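Example (one chain per record):
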Amino acid sequence: MSASTSEKTDEKPAAFQEYVTLVVTDQDGRRLTRTMRRSDQVQVLMDFYYSMVPTVKHGEGVFSFSGPPTRMPADYNMKDGDEIRFFPEIELVTPVLRDLRTSQDAASPAPCGPATGCRS
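Predicted structure:
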């Protein structure tokens, strides 16, 4: 038996290099895989997710990747198997900062002046 001289390569044939397979995962553990052209808009993948998951209304939730969905996977240098996370609800929280003063500061009154609105 003779040894084969052909070697395996990880490169795709040129016809397949224009495609990328991306994965959308969500908090419920769903994983949707979609093969698309690198020149397609990411919105195509988002629409695919909404059509496959009828419990999520179209336009709700957030897809976690940077940039507008009008761009293409090629713009993000996405590769086969890259994952985009979907979050059904994002609750915006406004941080509230407490004004912490030492007991000495709290005991002394604020200075009077135009900024405080009091008159001396």
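Caption: Residues 15 and 37 are 11 Å apart (CA to CA).
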